[in-house]
Amino acid sequence: MNLPDYLEIPLRLALLMGGLLLPGSMLLRALRLPWSLAAAFASSSATLYVAVLVFAWTGGAISLVTLAAALGLVTLLAGLIPARASTTQISSSFAAFAQMGWWLPLYGAFWLIVAWRLGVHPLNGPDVTFRWSWLAEQMLQVGSLDFYPPRSGDDFVRYFWAESIPPGVASLYAWAYACGGSKHALWTSPVVALQLLAVHELVWRLASRWGGEVVARRAVLLAAACPLLTWAVLLGQETGLTALAVAGILWSLAHLRDENGHRWVVLAGGFSIVAASTREYGAIFPVATIAATVWLQAPRSQMWLLAAVALPVALAWPLRVWLLTGNPFYSLNVVGLFATNPVFTAWNDTLRGPASQALASAESWWSLGRYLALWALPAVAGLVALVFLLIQRLREARIVAAFVGLVIVLWLVSVAFTAGGLFYSLRVLSPAYALLAVVAAYGLGFWVQHPAAAKYAAVAVALIVLESLPKTLVLPENPYRLGLREWPQAAAQFPAIVRTVNETLLTRVQPLPDRRRILSDHAGLPRIFAPIGTEVAPLWSPEVAWLFDGTLEPEVVAQRWRQSGLRYLVLGKTGATGGFMQNYARWRAPYFTLQPVAETETHVILEATVPATPTN
């Protein structure tokens, strides 16, 4: 845009927000459902994901023009449907938050901290830069998703990891970067802020339906007092969308028996699509939602309508992955049923070896309890309250318990695949934190009936929120182990360490000759080495599969290495790679000569050469 900066940035931001809210708002209008920020954002997100799926299946171009055209077309078509007044009266999102009363300043302090983190430390997750954000950047740079999931050597240069996470989050970030005309992470902050606000709104909606506005206020404050929930959203990964989608599903299911229940089923389908777009296991949520309609004895027509809305979109991505790779989950070895990348599977099994034992000891379970008590106390209280409400046979508690149980099972399975450790794995529980905040608030109201006791309960909630604010500011660090002056920048400590590691590697590699393409186990290097024209291929690229082929003779491996033009490897000193290379790589003397040419505290840079005429 050839406009002054003071006009260009607001216009770009308006375009970004319009795409995130307007299509969904018009769809809600067409369905004659009341407007909701969460529902509008989720419906727009589902629309954007469907558009990207269409482009992926057809090979269509992905750009600002095509994405805007898709969103605009849905907005136009939905706007052509005559609207009538909704029979369901629900207060607007902003009016709901305005009813926080004397708690509003406390809640405002929470959002000031969130604004600080999003403004100063956007996309703070450790693997966002080589996964969700990187995929969005590559989508726009390449103009398609033909390279993803990666299959060829060139594909792996564009996307390092052998995986097939659905591009739901990446679609939102691609829209943000396209609207901003820049790949600066700050453009994703409105997307993440909307997710968190939408989660809190849905907590309000659910709690208010259970117990009225007093319970709703408590629930939102308890959600704000759950730093693990906030952190899971602010990481910029899939866990924010998952929390939003699951809470939205529960809210929609609560309206199945309304006069316009079929319209709420369509909305539940929209939330289910968002859930399916987040991770390989996301398709389980539409299935669970359909099962919930059966459990709730909804009319069979609602079940079929939900299946028709959600399942085709939810299954479209794994079906595409299956057709392209022979495995709908690509990087996951599902009891040997599907093909996998054998080198990545062997390397990843070595990487996650310690993770698979994360809950194998009493000490691990003690750590888990400590983490949850410190960083998710409202959710712990909600779990206790949920057991009590189940004993009381509260119908709403049963459906919440089913989804909380599903999320816990998914987390238990994911722990074995999480190289980041037990604490990092807890982000997967984000939907459970949100739902349990509702249960905790309702349980508190159930137990506290006397007016005097209610005042003490209010003071207790306020103190819990106050105590949680420093934790929200510094996570994943611990405020009790930091000086007060360190708090504002504490969240940037780990990213700063990673940045220093990468910049040091850059200074070591840049002077080397013949570094056009190197091998590495470090997924962050493609972004770091791009400015110096060095392409980074992973160890599991099919381009070098022969390096790990035990059926080949050593001289054949050496010959292929020489023909490949590869010369250097950048490998981590710790973790899986050392043992993996020692056990699987086919470097055999005298066919190969390996020598370190540079190193950092964390990595070694090896030069692998093949003598012209090796001797025995």
Description of the molecule:
With 616 residues, this protein is mainly alpha-helical. Helix content is 62%, strand content 4%. The protein has a five-stranded mixed sheet. It has 27 helices and five strands. The protein has helices at 5-31, 37-58, 64-80, 93-98, 104-120, 132-142, 153-158, 168-180, 189-211, 213-224, 227-234, 239-253, 261-276, 284-295, 300-325, 342-351, 362-375, 377-391, 395-415, 422-425, 430-447, 451-474, 487-490, 493-509, 525-529, 554-564, 577-584, and strands at 517-520, 535-538, 568-572, 593-599, 603-609.
Task: Please outline what is shown here.
This protein has 616 residues and is mostly helical. It has helices at residues 5-31, 37-58, 64-80, 93-98, 104-120, 132-142, 153-158, 168-180, 189-211, 213-224, 227-234, 239-253, 261-276, 284-295, 300-325, 342-351, 362-375, 377-391, 395-415, 422-425, 430-447, 451-474, 487-490, 493-509, 525-529, 554-564, 577-584, and strands at residues 517-520, 535-538, 568-572, 593-599, 603-609.
